Every structure is written in C-alpha cells, then in structure tokens.
Amino acid sequence: MHIRGDHAELAVGGRLDVRSAADARTVLHSAVDDGAGDLVLDLSELDSWDATGLGVIMGAHRRAGRCGRRLVLRGVPPQMQRLLVATRLHRILAIEGGIGVETLPRV
Predict the structure, then answer these.
(1) Nearest to 95 by CA among 67, 66, 57, 59
(2) What sequence ranges are listed for the domain STAS (predicted)?
(3) If we measure between CA atoms, which residue out of 58, 49, 39 comes closest to residue 14?
C-alpha cells in the first residue's frame, strides 16, 4: 500500500488491508488534523481493501466530521463500489460523482 499527497488530497494505491491499516490510519488522521475543507481520497489506484481497510476509511470519515471537514472518495473501483452498496455505506460516505447503483453488475 502507498499513500501520497497532502492534507487536501491523498492518492491510495495497492492493498488497504489488515497489514497496512495502521500506517494508513496514521497518514489519514494526520491529513485530517492538519488541513481544512474537504479531504479528497483518490482510490483509483487501489487494488483491494478488506474489512479492516474499510474500517480505516470509516474512521477517517468520522474524524473528518469531528474536525468540521468532509472526506470525499474519488475514483472508487467498481468492485469496491459494490461493497459500499452492499454495506449501504454509499449512503453515508461522500463519493465524487456518486455510485450508479443500477449500473453495477449483480454479485
């Protein structure tokens, strides 16, 4: 997993899973704490995430809300869009461009 960017926009690539969760959490929390306004999280280079990785995203979302910021997901890959829909988190998280639920293939 790799994360690059600053307190306004971060690009996440690789796997966001139990092995990378602690590092990702540290980077995301620092970005939330050090900035203002929306924090854009570009996931277009993300290969996969597991429940722990999704928990890191949700934790950053909650922390951003407490800091008066908003976490915005950009470039969410289709397989991860399906997971967000299945867990109904697409209704909670801000997703740039939204998710076309009707266009996602059935699993």
Answers:
(1) 57
(2) 1-107
(3) 49
Q: 59 CB contacts (<8 Å, ≥6 apart)?
A: 25, 28, 29
Q: Which residues of 11-27 are buried (b: 16+ CB within 10 A; e: fewer)?
A: bbeeebbeebbeebbeb
The SS3 call for residue 12 is strand
What is the rounded distance in angstroms from the CA atom of residue 5 to the CA atom of residue 78?
23
Per residue in 1-46, pLDDT (tens digit) is 888 988 899 999 999 999 999 999 999 999 999 999 999 999 999 9
Q: How many CB atoms lie within 10 A of CB 102?
A: 5
User: The pTM is what?
Assistant: 0.87
CA–CA distance, 56 with 54 (Å, rounded to integer) = 5
Cβ-contact 17, 50 below 8 angstroms: yes
What token pair was written down for 79? Answer: 């397989």
